[in-house]
Amino acid sequence: MDFLTLKGIQHTYFTVSSATTALKDISLEVKEGEFVSFLGPSGCGKTTLLSIIAGLIQPTNGKVLLENKPVNRAENDIGYMLQQDYLFPWKTIEENILLGLKINRSLDDHKREQTLSLLRQMGLQNVEADYPKQLSGGMRQRVALVRTLATEPKLLMLDEPFSALDFQTKLKLEDLVSNTLKRFNKTAILVTHDIGEAIAMSDRIILFSASPGTIHKSFPVPSELKKRPPFAARNHPLFNDLFNLIWKELESLEPE
Predict the structure, then answer these.
(1) How far apart are CA 100 and CA 156, in angstroms?
(2) Which domain of life is it from (predicted)?
(3) pLDDT over 90, % of the chain
(4) Which of 46, 82, 203, 208 is deepest in the core (most CB within 10 A)?
(5) Closest CA to 112 of 103, 126, 101, 104
(6) 68 exposed, middle or buried (CB, 10 Å; 0-12, 13-18, 19+)?
(7) Which of 115, 107, 112, 188 lies closest to 150, judged by CA?
């Protein structure tokens, strides 16, 4: 049984005078523990699809099943990490990372210590009493990841979480996030415009065509790359081969 199943997803945005179909006939299966990336031209509906999977938007047609059950946005099975960290500036780092547990009414001493331990594992020692403005962008994204993982979601949604960071910080975070998700055997979906990032972090890459968004092609990442941390994968000869293959395919989707 597949962990996540999308069946015939279609979504149309309606206004008073028009109807625009953003996604059409999206069917996809994701296995537990798999890391899948969504790539495609701007406007192909990647973020819309992520919102549908998370239960934030109801599709016009089709359904999303998580462990063979319809996704319900009231459930806590899905975590979301965005380009911006969205930490509350008036709350301390400790208050920020425990917020989801408080909202779920599941915060206790064990989970508090578990979450603070994860913060330290992210290389963030002695920052619990600090405020977000005292941390760098990369540090705040690590805090956001801890906050997301604290509620123990079954599925993690990553919407361009590194795109606002400088390249060196981005590479370090790719390794950290990838290693953390593998350690916890988390299933993840990444939306990105960065082909290299998708190859370095993923087990499989889904390429979308635009207007309306459909699945154009699926690229499995070779095991020689998957078994390596993202930074090491970028230096493997197969990395460039797959990069060029996806680049050419992506170019073929651009309007002439």
Answers:
(1) 14
(2) Bacteria
(3) 64
(4) 46
(5) 101
(6) exposed
(7) 115
45-75: pLDDT as tens digits: 898 999 999 888 899 999 999 998 888 754 6
Burial class from Cβ neighbours inside 10 Å (0-12, 13-18, 19+) for residue 223 reads exposed
DSSP 24: E
Separation in Å, CA 95 to CA 60, 134, 146, 151: 38, 15, 12, 14
CA-CA-CA-CA dihedral for 13, 15, 20, 26, to nearest 10: 10
DSSP 130: -
Which residues is 23 bridged to in the sheet?
11, 213
For residue range 27-46, list pLDDT tens digits in order. Answer: 999 999 999 999 998 888 89
Residue 64: beta bridge partners?
6
Tokens 């603070």 correspond to 116
As to burial, measured by CB atoms within 10 angstroms (0-12 exposed, 13-18 middle, 19+ buried), residue 103 is exposed
Confidence of residue 214 (pLDDT cuts 50, 70, 90): very high
Q: Helices 167-183 & 137-150, crossing angle to 10 degrees?
A: 20
Which residues sit opposite 204 in a β-bridge?
36, 220
Tokens of 161: 């979480």
Q: How far apart are CA 130 and CA 120, in angstroms?
A: 14
- Pick one of 3.40.50.300, 3.40.50.1000, 1.10.1610.10, 3.20.20.70 as the CATH number of 9-77+153-253: 3.40.50.300
Q: Is 205 exposed, middle or buried (0-12, 13-18, 19+ CB in 10 A)?
A: buried
